[in-house]
Amino acid sequence: MIQIAIILGSTRPGRRVEDVARWVAETAGRHSAVKAGEAVLELVDIADYDLPLLDEPAPAIFGSYQNAHTKRWAATIDRFDAFVFVTPEYNSAIPGALKNAIDYLYAEWNDKAAGIVSYGVFGGTRAAEQLRQTMGELKIADVHAHVAINPYHDFDFTDSEAGVCVPGERQETALNTMLDEVLAWSQALRVLREPAASAGSRPGPA
């Protein structure tokens, strides 16, 4: 079974990330692999971890975490095989809180697949591009398919000033395509995440 974290990438009061992530979880929950029990989804909100500005004395690549909040965050991320990052675009970039949360860890991100759901006036595409650069450094395989949410087209402002995220069929198709790629890459990378188990499952010489 593939464990996928839907990561809420903003901590700002009044944020829309909860609404967008809710749509992602509900839509992804109808994906055939999820319905068949081949994949499971979990919302992971960085706001729940109260991570201060990076305060670990050693670079994350050494894995010598000193602080309780880092160890808790590391234990959470380590459980997953893949990620869907849900991020707004702030000034042509991802939120500082998301970059901070990512920078806390290293090995826990390695050899896993990820997709991006971005949102903003221009669909959050510039934030997505910045996030792709960061994922490359962490040995995360970010998939090509991308969901770009535009508030003008994908939110309903009828009953709420903040709006409700209600993307149409086109965005649902894009999300399912992204999930197909995330699942395929996650399966392919299993040999790197679990080398002993993968080696044990191969047939021996004839």
From TrEMBL:
Signal peptide: none annotated. Transmembrane segments: none annotated. Coiled coil: none annotated. One of its GO terms (molecular function) is FMN binding. This is NAD(P)H-dependent FMN reductase. It comes from Nonomuraea jiangxiensis. Gene3D superfamilies: 3.40.50.360. GO terms for cellular component: cytosol. Residues 3-152 form the NADPH-dependent FMN reductase-like domain.
